[in-house]
Design goal:
- Strand 1 (about 5-10), helix 1 and strand 2 form a beta-alpha-beta unit.
- The chain is globular.
- Helix content is about 35%, strand content about 30%.
- With about 300 residues, the protein is α/β, with parallel strands linked by helices.
- The chain has nine helices and 14 strands.
- The strands form two sheets. It has an eight-stranded mixed sheet with strand order 8-9-10-7-11-12-13-14, with helices on one face. Strands 3-2-1-4-5-6 form a six-stranded parallel sheet, sandwiched between helices.
Length: about 300
């Protein structure tokens, strides 16, 4: 392994474990740290005994051999951890959102540029190959309406807008650019202040979008319906279905064999070898935060 390929991971909770799994296949994970959960530490030592678990993230930032840091921690910790990593001149992969405030996002991007390091934000659905197919379709068939419907149970300790809605907004930005307006139509809180929300989005060319998020559901499903001038498409995880006006059935037309996280991790590692660092995903993440603050 080259020095460029030595990385560290901060956070080995549910999603952090996925990052350890996928990055371990393509890079040398030298160190990990976390909030100290004993079960997570045992999991790491059992499944990845060659990775050194350290008790303090400073051991990661002070390690000159470590070139990049992967961060998967609660949203409230993002800004401080990313800033410390960038000031240590480490490339950074941070799970979405980049941080909580637009001013913080701008500051982090400036630090990354100044230190000539890559700042990447993991809006993972952007790396789903189904989305790439939808982008191709949109160039031939104008999308006139899109509907997001996400049901799950959990994540009550995080802000629903920054935690869940950020995914939907990242997809909208990728497909259509910045929307004209986002209206919060309804919201309901049961465990937290806001657990079920419905939003209406006015897109750039008189297109409309509806978003429904429910994190207090007894079922787990994320569906995106795309209505074009000719057809209707359903994006369901790694599958894309098609229906036209003459048919009552939806036909499977594409299925990805790779998970978005696999693709995303490989993308990050490849970018580390480039001389010019791209800030496309960091700037998109900043725009996501900015749009969310206009809603709330």
């Amino acid at each position: 392994m080259t020095t460029m390929n030595k990385i560290a991971i901060i956070g080995i909770g549910n999603w952090g474990k996925n990052l350890v799994r996928d990055f371990s296949k393509i890079s040398n994970i030298k160190k990990c740290t976390s909030n100290g959960n004993i079960q997570n530490i045992k999991w790491l030592k059992k499944n990845y005994p060659l990775i050194d678990y350290v008790n303090n993230y400073k051991e990661i930032f002070n390690d000159e051999e470590i070139n990049a840091v992967i961060i998967s921690t609660p949203i409230k910790t993002h800004y401080a951890l990313v800033k410390k990593a960038l000031l240590s001149k480490k490339h950074v992969f941070i799970e979405k959102p980049l941080c909580s405030k637009v001013s913080e996002a701008k500051e982090l991007i400036q630090i990354a540029k100044k230190n000539n390091v890559f700042l990447f934000v993991g809006h993972v659905f952007l790396f789903n190959e189904v989305l790439q197919k939808i982008i191709q379709i949109s160039k031939k068939e104008k999308i006139i309406y899109i509907e997001f419907n996400w049901k799950k149970f959990g994540s009550f300790d995080e802000d629903i807008f920054l935690n869940l809605l950020s995914h939907e907004i990242s997809i909208i930005l990728k497909l259509f650019g910045k929307p004209k307006k986002i209206n919060l139509q309804s919201s309901f809180g049961f465990i937290s202040k806001c657990d079920i929300v419905t939003l209406n989005v006015k897109l750039s060319q008189n297109q409309n979008c509806q978003i429904y998020l429910n994190r207090y559901s007894n079922e787990k499903q994320k569906i995106v319906k795309i209505f074009t001038e000719k057809n209707v498409y359903i994006w369901d995880d790694l599958k894309l279905y098609k229906n036209n006006k003459k048919s009552s059935d939806f036909k499977l037309i594409y299925e990805s064999k790779l998970t978005p996280l696999e693709i995303q991790c490989k993308f990050f590692i490849r970018e580390l070898y480039k001389s010019n660092n791209s800030f496309e995903y960091a700037n998109l993440a900043k725009d996501v935060i900015q749009l969310i603050h206009k809603i709330k």
